[in-house]
Each structure stands twice: as structure tokens, then as C-alpha cells.
Design a protein that fits this description.
Elements (H helix, E strand, L loop, with lengths): L2 H19 L3 H14 L18 H13 L10 H16 L4 H21 L7 H15 L6 H16 L31 H22 L2 H12 L1
Helix pairs in contact: 1-2, 1-7, 1-8, 2-5, 2-7, 4-5, 4-7, 5-6
Amino acid sequence: MLGHDHALTGAVAFTAVAPLLHVTPAGLLAGLVLTAGAGVLPDIDEPGSTIARSYGFLTETFAWIVHHLSGGHRKGTHSIIGVVVFTAGAWAAAHYDHSLAGKIALGVFLSLLLSAALAALHVGGHHGDALGVAAAAAMIWFNVGLALTPLCIALGAAAHIAGDMLTHGGCPVVYPVSREEFHLLPDGLQFTTGKFAEHWIVTPLLTAALLFLAWRDTGLAPITHYLDNLIR
């Protein structure tokens, strides 16, 4: 999947479960954007990916290191172990956010995710990185959505892997135990990244799902239903 579809998949995953979390409108927005960023997080194993380009040389170098430590692209970071490691790191940062080290780690985590989400969704243009840093600082200062961070990471990373499992490439979800590529669709329905099916079927479906779920979660659905009953 392309970066923007991974981000959309993450955002859809969060909005789908948001009613169960009883989040505030601010928490909904924060969780949606964080999970969109987490939707591209597993591609931190590829120096040329959307998230690796977020902060130029720094993140590209980090991605190069992860690439070699994780066994290459679509290996360790695209497995169950990868999701566990990402989630554990986010939990540790959020759990120790009262300390200076925890705040710094959480700030780095949030900035990376928010900037990656904006870049993947083509929001903010050249100012996307600055917006990501500012949004991360605001979240920490006002304590908005911080407790959701580990869940957002888990949902986004899992959604990324599920998305890649729809493509011909698949994902080695039990790596390094096995290098077998797993798929969610039979051969005839699998699509190739960046080709016709993704651009004209997958992207519109994800966009429609996100808009519908966001409409439902913001409380507009009950209002619309009430107005419809008044008209009748």
C-alpha cells in the first residue's frame, strides 16, 4: 500500500473503535491523527518511505538502522513482534511522561507520528514537520490523547500490516519464526501497490469509510436522524 492509504487505514481503525473509548472531541481528533501516523510507522524500516523522510537525515539514518536490525523491508517491523515492540515503546513513553526523559521520548514519538500523518495525507505542505512538532507539544502541555498513544500505535501498526496483506507482497506476520508471506485475500483479489485497484478502489473506499465513521463519531449522525424525524 502507498503511504496515504496506510494513513487512511490507521485513521479508519481508530474511528471504528472510538465509540468504545468514550473520547472527547479533542481526543477523537488526536487519536485519529496519531493512528494515521502509526499507520505508516512499520515502514520505518525503509529509508525512502514517507515516515523516514519526515525529518530528513535524522529519520532516514534511523530508518537505515532499523532496516538492517529488522531484517529488511517488510520483515520485523511488519510482524506481530514489530507491533509489540512499537506498542511497548509507546506505553513506556506515556507511562513515564511525568519525568523529563519520558516527556522527551513521548515528544519524539508524537512528533514523528503527527508529522508522518500530515505528510502521508498531504496536509501542511512544507510546514508539516513544524505543525507536527507544535501539535505534539500541545498534546503534552494540555495532556490530550496521551493515554491513547499505545492503543493508537497498536491499531495503526496492525492496520498497516493488514493493508499490506491485501497486496501481492503479503506480510511475514510471524517473522522471524517464519518468513512465509501471509495474505488476507485469494490470489485473484490481491492488488499491486500503486496500481489501478489501489488508486480507484481502495483509496475511495477508505476515504468513504473514514468520512462516515468520523460523521458518526462526532455526533452528527444522531442530529441528522433527529432532523430527519422532524421533517417526516
